[in-house]
Design brief:
Elements (H helix, E strand, L loop, with lengths): L1 H18 L8 E5 L5 H9 L4 E4 L2 H10 L5 E4 L8 H5 L4 E5 L2 H13 L4 E6 L14 H11 L5 E7 L8 H20 L6 E3 L6 H6 L4 E4 L1 H4 L12
Parallel strand pairs: 1-2, 1-8, 2-3, 3-4, 4-5, 5-6, 6-7
This protein binds pyridoxal-5'-phosphate.
Length: about 230
């Protein structure tokens, strides 16, 4: 079941890439396993999936301790400073860095763990107040340039969530905004490689606009049941 869904997504990626002249190898699928159980992750692993995304520090920590296989974990949720330790010891990538204070805390923890933590800065490209991420130009510039000075961080890209809407144009605008922002920094000498954008409902548009990491939950695992804990699923 999960394998079929993954294969379908890979086919779609292939199609979109050939239409938009992109190399499918440049697009990483992150299977967002939040609120799903260990057996779901095992099933995806058996289908060859390596990258998994979680949005709660304790859930990431708990799951990583129950699974022996090699997983590349991505942390994609809102992160409070007092939870940074759980995430730094497990996550290869943290996509949701949305303040300099948080970046500094991650840097401190990474230094203690003798690790270079790969991070992305989360940008609010939709103007929706409910969304995390930075939106002011001055704040974005400030964090991007200051992060380069933090020795145990490696800034690899930008992340965003498109607005919740059926309006494809608005979604696309959000992704274009992120791509142009990245291009601006690259032109100014900041080495940014990745655009983490696109979820189950909008990953096709995201790929057309340059996504290199797509974060897909329900299209792989099905609808989430928030009445249950991942430990019961
Ligand atoms: C849950 C989540 C996703 C995946 O959402 P789906 O709609 O299930 O694909 C992607 N990104 C973030 C930040 C999430 O929290």
């Amino acid at each position: 079941m999960i394998e079929e869904k993954l294969n379908k997504i890979k086919e779609n990626i292939f199609d979109i890439c050939s239409k938009s002249n992109r190399d499918p190898a440049q697009i990483k699928i992150i299977a967002v396993s939040k609120n799903f159980g260990i057996r779901h992750i095992q099933e995806a692993l058996a289908a060859g999936q390596i990258d998994f995304g979680e949005n709660r520090p304790q859930e990431l920590d708990g799951k990583s301790k129950l699974i022996n296989e090699n997983i590349c974990w991505h942390f994609i949720g809102n992160l409070q400073k007092n939870k940074v330790k759980y995430v730094v010891r497990t996550a290869e990538f943290i996509h949701s860095v949305n303040s300099l204070a948080l970046a500094e805390e991650i840097n401190k923890r990474a230094e203690k763990s003798e690790k270079i933590q790969k991070i992305l800065v989360e940008i609010n490209t939709s103007g929706e107040e409910t969304k995390q991420g930075l939106s002011k130009d001055s704040e974005i510039d400030n964090i991007i340039y200051k992060i380069s000075e933090l020795k145990n961080l490696k800034l690899i890209g930008l992340m965003t969530m498109a607005p919740y809407t059926e309006d494809e144009n608005k979604i696309r605008k959000s992704f274009i905004f992120l791509r142009m922002l990245k291009d601006k920094f690259v032109q100014n000498g900041v080495e940014l490689k990745h655009l983490s954008m696109g979820m189950s409902s909008d990953y096709k548009i995201a790929i057309e606009e340059g996504a290199t990491m797509i974060r897909i939950g329900s299209a792989i695992f099905g609808e989430r049941d928030y009445t249950k804990s991942w430990r019961e699923l």
